[in-house]
């Protein structure tokens, strides 16, 4: 049986030349192979392989020589290094759920604690501007209550964000007027709760199978009830498709699903950077000179 010609004579005119490379082993002083790895450079790439895994970084511009490769990798950000590899980002369920919860909390926190804006001051030693103490731009409920206690404002001037009241209308008539189920048809509440209201309506075992007239909606004011909702968000976001469906119900135009490199990827990139720093510290490669 004749073997198929997989190369199709594409390599017939190739000639062989020696490729420059440098390789270094890293192991424990006692000779143990535990966490042993090897760093190898060849023009345009650095590879790591060993007991902790395998990864290859590619960048022809940054790594034409061994010295430039080590200097480049020794002080690069891990995400940047991983972007030069074949590693793929993975769905992060916890951080996706964190985003949804943080987005719902943000307006409530602002209306409660006030809105602050950053300030910058010039450092007398370096001449550079650094962050100073944030400045209060708009009062929240807490600042208003402090002013009330000091007698600076009247009680009616305090916006109590925890007022969440059912409107006194005949719900049977309201359901006949228009087809849209809108929370403001049934309730009076501050705008800062709008995202929590939407979240309640979007979660199974909460408001997904109910309409906004349900009296349970008011429970979002209770911290224990919101804690249960937060756990429901984490449970929903375990699977990426379920997280996307939740974001669709919440009305996000651009789904902020979080993707990140895995812990193993960050560990491998950290090992490459650490090894290159060791090569510089031990004098194998000179430290890169700063521009004058």
What would you say about this model in short?
The chain is an alpha+beta fold and 292 residues long.
Give short descriptive properties of this protein:
single chain, 292 residues, alpha+beta, 2 domains, four-stranded antiparallel sheet, two-stranded antiparallel sheet, 9 helices
Written overview of the protein:
With 292 residues, the chain is of the alpha+beta class. The protein has two domains: 21-89 and 262-281, no CATH class; 91-112 and 162-259, no CATH class. It is built from nine helices and twelve strands. The strands form five sheets. The chain has a four-stranded antiparallel β-sheet. It has a two-stranded antiparallel sheet with strand order 5-12.
Determine the strand fraction and express it as a percent band: 15-25%
How many separate structural domains?
2
Shape: elongated
Terminus-to-terminus distance: 68 Å
> Measured on Cα atoms, how large is the radius of gyration?
30 Å
The structure class reads alpha+beta
Report helical residue fraction: 25-40%
Helix count equals 9
Order of helices and strands: EEEEHHEHEEEEHEHEHHHEH
Mean pLDDT: 90
Strand order of the largest sheet: 1-2-3-4
Please outline the major beta sheet.
Answer: 4 strands, antiparallel
Q: Report low-confidence residues grouped into runs of 5 or more.
A: none
The beta-strand count equals 12
